């Protein structure tokens, strides 16, 4: 009897945890990802704001799975799934046949039909995004130093973050800290503490998915850091000069998008029912309706009362792997049950909010829980040590040393 072929698309939290759960399974496992690294996305904003270097929150997929003898890692991008033939087509035209398929391709940036805004307001999903945002932030201060006219300098020192979910709150709070603490005393023609950070949210509160009392505490902590919070405001235009909100205009050279994500386009290739955001409406066991051999996990799966966060993706990845094993043994699959271990959002130094069961925390206690949890869940020991050192150093000194800007140089003539 041939060894069953299991293919996992995507090696984020859902895909990696599924692969590791199959480490002792008698299967021929193939993991496909369009990058060569697994990324700890909860700390990606720290790379974007020069707090951490990229290798500190990532690791080569091949190295992570090197000891798992039943797995082959491929760097590539899945373009379509032929469910009838049980084959995945990759970007180079090659195909991967499968007996069982786990789709964990996650989400992409969503500009809600305004994709023309993307060049002016980059979003934060990948390491490339983080490095691009970091360069824009640091170059804005450099341009401000060279601008002699105060009025023309102002847009360089104005930073607008669109969207006040966890990513937006983290970016806005950290930008305020950079301006008021990290860069203090480093420029001669202006005071970085006069930089303006504006957080724009279309709903009536920051962190809309959190309880109202924690949202309010988060807003107050942001304002204490110096962030201007605009609630109930819809962005109507973004261009090279700034942001338009109805009749109001904010002149800003640095605009960051944190207003939403959409499901990976691969969801449509499955021919499954989709919800409004494009996520797949999966069966209780995380399989695709009508395709019991295909499972969808992570941000791509629409499961009631399950947030799109890393712990949920890990749990779904493990559960899908167990159901794959159950099917291979001729046993029934089990429905997915999410275990809520809480949610955390950091705002700045000693500033955060957390909800863990019925316990709601804010300020320093929440920040301490956030710090311990994020260091503990990093992918390996080396990453934990490096991140702990850099975050501790930043805490005591307010310094961020990952502030190197790599300018794209034109190719030299031959």
How is the largest sheet built, in terms of strand order?
5-2-1-9-21-20
Q: Strand-residue fraction?
A: 15-25%
Multimeric status of the protein: single chain
CATH class of the domain at 116-259: Alpha Beta
Number of helices: 11
Give the total of beta strands: 25
Structural class: alpha/beta
Mean pLDDT: 93
What does the model show?
- Helix 1 runs parallel beside helix 9.
- The longest helix is centred in the first third of the chain and has 20 residues.
- The chain has 11 helices and 25 strands.
- It is α/β, with parallel strands linked by helices and about 425 residues long.
- Strands 5-2-1-9-21-20 form a 6-stranded mixed sheet, covered by helices on one side. A 4-stranded parallel sheet has the order 13-12-11-17. A 3-stranded antiparallel sheet has the order 6-7-8, with no helix packed on it.
- The model has no long low-confidence stretch (mean pLDDT about 95).
- Among the domains are: about 130 residues, FAD/NAD(P)-binding domain; about 140 residues, FAD/NAD(P)-binding domain (3-Layer(bba) Sandwich), CATH 3.50.50.60.
Topology summary:
Blueprint lengths: L4 E5 L3 H9 L6 E6 L3 E3 L4 H5 L9 E3 H4 L6 E5 L2 E5 L4 E4 L4 E3 L2 E4 L3 E3 L17 H20 L3 H4 L4 E5 L3 H17 L13 E6 L10 H14 L1 E5 L5 E3 L2 E4 L2 E4 L2 E4 L3 E3 L2 H4 L10 E2 L5 E2 L2 E6 L4 E2 L7 H19 L14 E6 L2 E6 L2 E4 L1 H13 L4 H17 L17
Parallel strand pairs: 1-2, 1-9, 2-5, 9-21, 11-12, 11-17, 12-13, 19-22
Antiparallel strand pairs: 3-4, 6-7, 7-8, 10-18, 14-15, 15-16, 20-21, 23-24, 24-25
């Amino acid at each position: 009897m041939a060894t069953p072929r299991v293919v996992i698309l995507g090696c984020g939290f859902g895909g990696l945890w599924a692969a590791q759960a199959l480490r002792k399974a008698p299967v021929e496992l193939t993991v496909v990802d369009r990058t060569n690294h697994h990324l700890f996305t909860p700390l990606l904003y720290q790379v974007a704001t020069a707090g951490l270097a990229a290798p500190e929150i990532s690791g080569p997929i091949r190295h992570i799975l090197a000891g798992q003898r039943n797995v082959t890692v491929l760097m590539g991008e899945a373009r379509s799934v032929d469910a009838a033939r049980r084959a995945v087509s990759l970007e180079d035209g090659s195909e991967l046949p499968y007996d069982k398929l786990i789709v964990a391709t996650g989400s992409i940036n969503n500009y809600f039909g305004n994709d023309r805004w993307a060049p002016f307001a980059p979003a934060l999903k990948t390491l490339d995004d983080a490095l691009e945002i970091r360069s824009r932030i640091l170059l804005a201060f450099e341009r401000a130093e060279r601008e002699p006219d105060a009025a023309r300098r102002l847009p360089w020192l104005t930073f607008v973050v669109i969207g006040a979910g966890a990513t937006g709150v983290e970016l806005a709070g950290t930008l305020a800290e950079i301006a008021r603490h990290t860069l203090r005393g480093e420029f001669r023609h202006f005071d970085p503490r006069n930089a303006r950070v504006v957080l724009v949210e279309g709903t009536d509160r920051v962190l809309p998915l959190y309880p109202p009392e924690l949202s309010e505490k988060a807003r107050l902590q942001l304002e204490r850091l110096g962030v201007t919070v605009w609630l109930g405001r819809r962005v109507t235009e973004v261009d090279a000069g700034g942001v338009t909100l109805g009749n109001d205009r904010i002149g800003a050279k640095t605009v960051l998008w944190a207003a939403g994500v959409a499901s990976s386009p691969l969801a449509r290739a499955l021919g499954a029912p989709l919800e409004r955001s494009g996520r797949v409406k999966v069966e209780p066991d995380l399989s695709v309706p009508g395709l019991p051999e295909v499972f969808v996990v992570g941000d791509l799966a629409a499961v009631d009362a399950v947030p799109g966060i890393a712990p949920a993706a890990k749990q779904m990845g493990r559960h899908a792997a167990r159901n794959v094993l159950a099917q291979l043994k001729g046993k029934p699959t089990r429905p997915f049950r999410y275990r809520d271990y809480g949610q955390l959002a950091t705002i700045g130094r000693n500033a955060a909010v957390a909800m863990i069961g019925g316990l709601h925390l804010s300020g320093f206690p929440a920040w301490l829980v956030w710090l311990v949890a994020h260091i503990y869940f990093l992918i390996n020991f080396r990453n934990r040590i490096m991140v702990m050192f850099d975050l501790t150093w930043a805490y005591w000194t307010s310094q961020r040393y990952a502030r190197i800007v790599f300018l794209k140089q034109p190719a030299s003539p031959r």
